[in-house]
């Protein structure tokens, strides 16, 4: 094979920027995020105060955990919309168990049990996806109704306003604290650490284990992956169990942070999370995306949701803005791919 | 990125000189043959396989020795793919015996087959488009080493090492940028080699290649042949499944000919002439004579004047008369593919003029081309042309559906069926049932359905891109007869193809493209394959460097 022919593999005659963007689409997400932050801080310098940054960090945790789960399933070519129901289910049942039966259960055990419970519900998803051979979107729409229905019909519908003490304490436990200029105490809660830890773990699984590569292989072409000897059943079960575990954990953190357990909570925010993951550069058709991109996508949505108010845009406009960004980013990703081919 | 020349080029040159001579079997001249062990690596004995009522294999027996090359020949549907699946463990035979290194088995399972070193390069390549070259080549080696268990660390150093060794063997670069390139960004020919690299990344003993050269040009085939030589020198047996008889002779080795689920002949290729092999495959005599007997009519139908689409082709000019058949050939990167899609309006030319019947027209979109009476039959008929799960009838009328519909948008089915039936007859489909899904037809019949669809709009000019790629010998014959009939009726045809005998047998004139330009024009009756190859392979400055001056 001659040298001139092999040259085709190298992107010599393409624009370097477009090439970079088509390989790392999250760069666009980062640029949009940066542009918003600059614009907002020019209009309202209050945005740059530590207190608003801490607010953004705190608001990212639950959505970030959900998004990591959605991302890993999207990478394998599937989609999950049941994670909010799993989170509500484990959050509410766990709170009831602690409140009514084991009031002195240590918080670490609460978190572990919630995570395990979420994983168990995820396994149900994985088994159904594998054995019914039905697209995961349909399966998880079904299980979302199922999990939520069981929660509301058999477990309870009462809004728990006073959490068990250890859960409330966990929600308030500070990572660091400081006084802001106007004398308020600003707290970055300890649970914030869960997000970077989960992101690191997800990154490690995806890039450093055979399971991680198998997930992307499945997202590339499921029937080829099967022909090459990857066990699709193992991958499906792991994927949904992992996403379920993250959802279970996110549920408890959500309750602890809001100091209440509402069984009607969370379900309905799936699209927001999927939007964040897609804004982070993962293709809805599977096989691509990065953990970093996912986090940037989450950050973008959280920032848009929290800063529009600061620049005087009514909160009802948030959806319009988020929708516009999704179309803008998706259009740009597509444009870069086309340019590159 | 300029990649250093690989030793593969030396081997390529050597094979080229051999191929210049009349068909000589490599097996008989190569010193490796003498060292081949007496006991075959794999032997099939009296294999039968039935699928429902279809008796796909009827007592097939053959054996494969280490370090030898074999060519499994036969028309579509003769049982070739079934026998491959039995060797790779995907199917179990109903009767018969598989002897693997002296041990008898009733059937193999995929793990047994892989563990014994039987690797298959499927026609669809089975690559993972979103992963890197290194991962596609070497990830499976780690998966197999861990027995398929996924809860294991992924060893990047080992991945790199395995991938480098396998890529070097097939003559691909081992630079880091190449290892990390995403497979979907590679040209098709390189993907083919990546698939082969994966097959040999584990300790392969037998590599089965299912129609590996379908999408390769001559230069790439030369490289593949060099790879096969290297594998054979390491004692690896290679089994080709192919339609292309010319390439079999260039590779050399043994022929195994299938017809209707039976093995009708086997032995050294040198014992069989091309003519004889064709007879064995089809069960009838097909003359390799020139199909073209007619002559073009007077009057220019189509003219291209200085068409350019950087960086693919530049200043391409030619004209075509009514009833004329023009062949265009060149290497895959010569710009011929882009020229074809430019004429069809799929990727419009950036500069230059097109005249149709003396009038200057602009073709900026496939719909323009269709309105002007230009039909385009793409090379990738599955991907770009046919609706496989729809019936022949629905496929045939796809272009004229709006003409068949009345004011309320309701399609006149009876009229459509009559049209589709007529086309099916004209195209000599071997089924009368136009309600059959196209996916159930053989490759040759699918191609005829696709050509037939264009006949529904009565084009003035039909552009055929690789009209017989992946089509068996019998269907080729029918397609050529149809092409000649269309030219007789006054249609102009442009055939873009790698298959030089096809162009020589069917065309009036042949244009050769090289590095984006038309470098030569030949009268098809006054030239031969060798002259065309010379023009295709002559080295020319790259278009960019030329433009830069």
UniProtKB/TrEMBL annotation, chain A:
It is a multi-pass membrane protein. InterPro entries: ABC_transp_permease. The keyword Membrane applies. Coiled coil: none annotated. One of its GO terms (cellular component) is plasma membrane. It is found in: Cell membrane. Keywords: Cell inner membrane, Cell membrane, Membrane, Transmembrane, Transmembrane helix, Transport. The chain crosses the membrane at residues 27-48, 60-93, 105-124, 145-166, 186-206, 237-257, 263-282, 289-311, 317-336. GO terms for molecular function: transmembrane transporter activity. The keyword Transport applies. PANTHER family: ABC TRANSPORTER PERMEASE PROTEIN YPHD-RELATED (PTHR32196:SF21), ABC TRANSPORTER PERMEASE PROTEIN YPHD-RELATED-RELATED (PTHR32196). This is Sugar ABC transporter permease.
TrEMBL record, chain B:
Keywords: ATP-binding, Cell membrane, Membrane, Nucleotide-binding, Repeat, Sugar transport, Translocase, Transport. PROSITE patterns: ABC_TRANSPORTER_1, ABC_TRANSPORTER_2. SMART domains: AAA (SM00382). GO terms for molecular function: ATP binding; ATP hydrolysis activity. Residues 42-285, 296-540 form the ABC transporter domain. The keyword Metal-binding does not apply. InterPro entries: AAA+_ATPase, ABC_carbohydrate_import_ATPase, ABC_transporter-like_ATP-bd, ABC_transporter-like_CS, P-loop_NTPase. Belongs to the ABC transporter superfamily. This is Sugar ABC transporter ATP-binding protein. It comes from Ancylobacter dichloromethanicus.
